[in-house]
Amino acid sequence: MRGNRAPDFFNSGATNQVTIHENSSSYQKYRILPRVLKDVSNVSTAIRLFDRDITFPLCVSPAGLQGMAHADGELATSRACAKAGVNMGVSSYANHSVEQIIAAGTEVGPIHHVMQLYSMTDREKEARIVHRAEKAGCKAIFLTADSPVLGVRFNEWRNGFMPPAGLDYPMIEKTSEQIQQQSHDDGFSSFNSASHSWAEEIPWLRSITKMEIWIKGVLTPEDVEMAIQYGCDGVVISNHGGRQLDETPATIDVLPACAKAAQGRIRIHIDGGIRSGSDIFKALALGAECCWVGRPMLWGLAVRLTLSVLWESIKS
Ligand SMILES: Cc1cc2nc3c(=O)[nH]c(=O)nc-3n(C[C@H](O)[C@H](O)[C@H](O)COP(=O)(O)O)c2cc1C
Ligand SMILES: O=C(O)C(=O)c1ccccc1
Question: Do residues 23 and 273 make contact, with C-beta atoms less than 8 angstroms apart?
Fold first, then answer.
């Protein structure tokens, strides 16, 4: 059976949903030790990122298929990020082009974007994404390194999730019809190169772009060291929101060791399960410079769609 249950795609983790839950619940293991009699009359949550102040240390992670949550999809996300004064990651599987997404945000206010990339079997197409992103004004490539193949997602399989008709994928240069002709797994993960490696990918990327190069999906001090050796600018400590390899640790639990390994030689950001200001505080206290968030932004888009449908039905 084929189905288009968007929640199966947006909300799901991989296999038994262990990591997706642990990402959030692990924050409750950490307690905040305040120091007292400190002058807090003049404080700011702003941090500097890509040579610009953002209002607070939370940006929006790249997530594909936002057109399934709302027709404006990534355009709306970009506007919202600009309004909030934070930066945004653009997925290679966005339903709008990087040029349109940047234009939509920039109309609202100052905003920077980063382009998410997978190592692809079609290197020429991968290079076209990089060049388009750079020309459009992206500040960095976020190379997602945890997805040589797509995660095992029982919740999607159970209902035969298929991306809906009518959505385009301008960055990977596919229409929904082309995606639907392949099975869900083939349609998506066949673009990713299962034979990717540090040596194949990073020097090549470095040779084709001046943008910063970040590795998204790092969970170990060893890979932080690899990213430093390969001259990368930053890493995002991430397990893909528990959607790729299940039973990997919560990102907050591996952050201290990763930050220690970095010793200030590379930027350390984090995502996965961050849902409140105290989560952000703990991540910063444990060594991250900035946090990123995925699903809550998608839920916001989907609620806007639901409200507009409700409103139309009330009016008529
Ligand atoms: C529906 C959905 C689609 C995603 N698509 C991508 C993607 O295209 N590329 C990518 O690198 N990460 C993708 N991610 C992972 C996010 O960038 C991020 O790592 C994750 O959502 C963070 O966890 P959180 O949702 O608990 O905040 C996706 C996540 C979700 C929920
Ligand atoms: O679902 C994801 O996590 C993801 O990275 C993805 C995979 C295929 C299409 C869009 C996003």
Answer: yes
Q: Which atom of ligand 2 is nearest to the CA of 144?
A: 5
CA 160 to chain centre: 24
In whole angstroms, give the CA distance from residue 206 to residue 200. 11
**Domains delineated in the chain:** 57-310 (3.20.20.70)
Q: Specify the pTM.
A: 0.96
Q: Whose CA is nearest to atom 5 of ligand 1?
A: 63
Predicted ipTM of the assembly: 0.99
Which atom of ligand 2 is the closest one to the Cα of 240? Answer: 3
Q: Provide the pLDDT for residue 185.
A: 59
Ligand nearest to the CA of 215: 1
Closest to 171 in 3D by CA, of 32, 67, 261: 67
CA distance 207 to 213: 11
- And the tokens for 177? 């019809």
- In this structure, the number of other CB atoms found within 10 A of the CB of residue 310 comes to 10
How far does the centroid of ligand 2 lie from the alpha carbon of residue 63, in Å?
A: 7
CA 293 – CA 67 distance, rounded (Å): 18
Query: Annotated binding residues for FMN, as ranges?
Result: 62-64, 91, 116, 144, 216, 238, 271-275, 294-295
Taking the chain (316 residues) in consecutive chunks of 10 residues, what is each chunk's mean pLDDT?
79 96 98 97 97 97 97 97 98 98 98 98 96 98 96 89 91 88 68 91 98 99 98 98 98 98 98 98 98 97 83 80
